[in-house]
Amino acid sequence: MQRFADLYSVVYDLIDDAKRDHDLVALHKGSHGSPDPHPVVLGMGRHLFDQGRGLLSYVGHRAGSNGAQVMPEHLLRFDLAHQPRISTRAIAAVLAATIRRDGESARDLLARLAARPHRLGQYRGGSSGFDEEARAVAVTHLRQAGIPAGLFEVMICCGGAKGVFMSACGAVMCRHENERVHRMSGRLLAPVGYYQSLRVVPPVFGGTIDTANELTGQTVAAWLQHTSDVAGRIVYVPLVNNVDGQVLDEPRAHGIAEAVLTHNHRHPANPVWVLGDDVYIGSYLDVAVRPTPIGSVTGTDLGAPELGSMTEWTVTVVTSSKTFALPTARVAFAHTSNRALRTGMAHYATMLSHGRIPQGDELTAAAALALTPQSWIDDWNNRYQQRLRWLSDQLDALNTELGRPVFRIIPPQGGWYVALRIHPRLLGDRRIQSSVDMLALLLHYDPHRRASGLALLPGELSGYRVSTEAPEFVLRLSVAVDDETLRISVARLREAALTLSGPDAGAVIDGALRRAEQVAPATVRTGHMT
Question: Which of 185, 286, 313, 448 is the most exposed, having the fewest neighbouring CB atoms within 10 Å of its CB?
């Protein structure tokens, strides 16, 4: 192999290359606006390493016990004082209903789990145990989201959401005959704006990605009919789109679920599976939208109870990395009620070294899901809303200054990303054929000034393509930055726009494309080879 030229790597190579000459404003990152999770979550990590005990012990410690002797009244005291988004009493109730020993009271169970040491040298999960508290957190979270989960239906996986995606694609897109493994050339349908790393997962197992401009019941049904001869199919359904922030509302969720459940009812020998990406759950910006996780829908909701439940065909995944501001705990919690799928995913999680979870990551991720107050999440959502309104006003003013509509955004309904759409009328230069090329211009619009340059993610990473029918360049930017960074970003966008529509535009474009060509050929940057 003489060169590795995947589009994902090329984009980051372009950004890293530009850093040599420019102090870029980084709007391409996916991190939450808070530099740390809520303080009560940080305390879980300290408690584990200082005391060697788990979540329930920590809750008791915060409520006045010594951490090893926790009683139900300590949970009540904690819930009243800290207002966690998931009641610790509800977590304890899940455990009491599931893992109590014969003759053991709920009070005794709580005391046993709180006193149990979590040694850093011990394995966790599977036959090793010690993950019941984290599982119970996930179960309670899922039930609050409308997904009827059981304690032993939950999987905990290293590698974050990507780890779950890998395990699910392996389980669905490969057929196993004892020691023989056959790739089935599966297909995955995703909306444009999908999580950018997803694009490299199906090909590992011989699969491909198909994209839809909008994921609806109609598009899913049409795709299922078009791919009727394909085995190993998956539909990727994000609760919040990773580029434009569109939230999966109830009508659209019901439409997708109806297409899936109807197909699987009619074709049980070749079902379609679903990846429910719920990692941005709770990060909502539009109060008029009713978010509906795809795994929560049942045939009864559709007026057809004979169709069953989406949990039988869906892997729902949630992490601490987005809404709860703990991306460094590379842990995902996943659920499906389908035992065979869980077995397949557990196999691949083991093979990919995703099945054994470090204690600190598992317990702090569970604490982030459970103990983060809803008021803290709401406060950050309000900050993002304010920044979005300000950004929209600034882009309107810039379009007015340019004398034509060049920049366009559609207000996102969730998350903290904005799909910035730039019309090619800004340039009047047909050499710019992709959003990756547009990124190169934004990185190098002022080649002689250090304090210049904007780093964003081009839409090609998430399935967008520039075409005659869709001529706008699409770049994802984040508003999970401080107000001063956003102000500087808009100022630099204005500088770039004035330069690229001025007399020096040709020279700037020449230089930016030459610089980009040194990093990657045009065939990669245009998305013709991904």
Answer: 448
* E strand segments, 254-378: 272-277, 314-319, 331-335
CA dist., res. 475 & res. 407, Å (int): 11
Helix (H) or strand (E) holding 258: helix 250-266
CB count, 10 Å around CB of 225?
10
276 and 224 in contact (C-beta within 8 Å)? no
Q: What is the pLDDT of residue 126?
A: 60
CA-CA distance, 127 to 386, in Å (whole number)?
A: 48
DSSP 3-state of 75 = helix
Contact 467, 19 (CB under 8 A): no
Sign of the four-CA dihedral 143, 144, 145, 151: negative
Name the band, by pLDDT with cuts 50, 70 and 90, for residue 530: very low
Q: Mind giving me the DSSP string for 194-245?
A: --GGGGGHHHHTT-EEEEESS--HHHHHHHHHHTTT-SSEEEEEESB-TTT-
Please give the Cα distance from 130 to 84 (Å, whole number). 23
- Dist CA 184 CA 205 (whole Å): 8
The phi, psi pair for 119, rounded to 5°, reads -80, 135
pLDDT at 420 over 80: yes
- Residues 135-152 have a mean pLDDT of 97
